[in-house]
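Q: Hi! First time doing this. I have a protein sequence and I read that you can turn it into a structure. Is that right? Here it is:
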Amino acid sequence: MLSALQNHPEVIHAVAIASQLKTDVYLVGGAVRDCVLGRQDIEDIDIVVTRAYEEFVRELTTALKGKAIPWDFDQSRIFFKESDAWRHIDVAQCKGPDIVSDLEKRDFTINAMAVDLQAFLKDQSFVILDPLHGQRDIKEKRVALCGRTSFTDDPLRMLRAIRIARQTGFSISPDTFGVIKNQAHLLKNTAVERIKKELFTVLALPNVCDSIDELYASGVLSQLVPIVDGFTAIEQSEPHQFSLLEHSIKTVASVEDVIVSVSEASPIGSYLDEPLEEGVTRKALLMFIALMHDSGKCKTQKNCSGRITFHGHDSVGAEINGEAAKNCGLGKRCRKIVQCVTKQHMRVLQLSMLETITERAKNRLISDCPDCFIETALLAVADSKATSDAREYDNEAARITTLVNDLLSLYYSMRDETDAAPAVSGNDVISILGLSEGPEVGRILRDLYELECTGRISSREEALEWLKQQK
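A: Yes, that's right. Below is the predicted 3D structure, encoded as structure tokens:
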């Protein structure tokens, strides 16, 4: 492990440049923590220099043939290539007159340790400077604040505490958790772009329900998505067995189980790993949607002769969740997916209740979820499994699961069959039917697409003949 660190080109160059500029250079943060934990792959290198920061960054960037980007106040990230793979190193100016002062201003004790890199490379002495007892907290598997002002200095650290706890398998110390509960409101002062990255990193980690429990119990989730506070007051009629909050969290857990059960026999695993925007994968976004899929019930709850109903909650929820996604820093594509899956999440259940399900109905559902059918399908199964533990509900959940498996098979076969160019184009529709560009052309092309998918049109000639009949 340590020998691998000695061979990192950025470490070698950093020590050489520090000697030239007569500055001290320290390895700090997560890299030191990972060394203490005995991890073999130390990828994220963070260093601190005590003087000549700008010159150091410039010289190291040149030595690595990389590119430096301002990353924070008095901090730069240098991107460079090694063996055809992109890597990076973070360089920061020491905060305070010496390294101890810098460590005292950091977030958590397990990240507030340093190693003198010059001494390390010179005599292989990996002596850890640990003024805040980070090694003790690592041994006790605890995430603890460096100081009482850690969260006021940077409120995002509250989210980071939960993320680090999940990544390391540690627990947040009671004192630190108490400070988070008291200061969660400070997150309103943090840029949504920074919140988005931390939140969706948490949502992509295993055992995400544990993270959501902590996010909710700490008050952080209420700051990010205030409507969740209303979930606790929403009771549901049969077959629902749980309150809205319980059902929402159980749905998230169920999504994790469903992903494991289907990804081994399909390409869904790699699909969910796809990044949709910086810091957000399809899997993380799906977890967000699973938590929020019934948000519309907060606005549509009615008591009809003793039975609680939520008519239209899918459409209302789509608007609520679109706004919530925006407030969490998500871009346009992710917001559209959030809204679409929320709006369509009842469709599979409704189809499953029909005596006969036509191919047209199946194809219409798939075409109505153009960038998120898989998410919609997985959520439908998870939603059903999180509705009730009663044995009499098992048949309904099984029926939905069977239908989703059928729909996924159809989806993949349609995708394979329609990778080729469509039989006709929008120009053909305009020319034959005498239409102008607009929504009507799109509607006709979608109808043609469905006919192709179901095998009722199999050539361009048949498609053109069908168009002429529409005239």
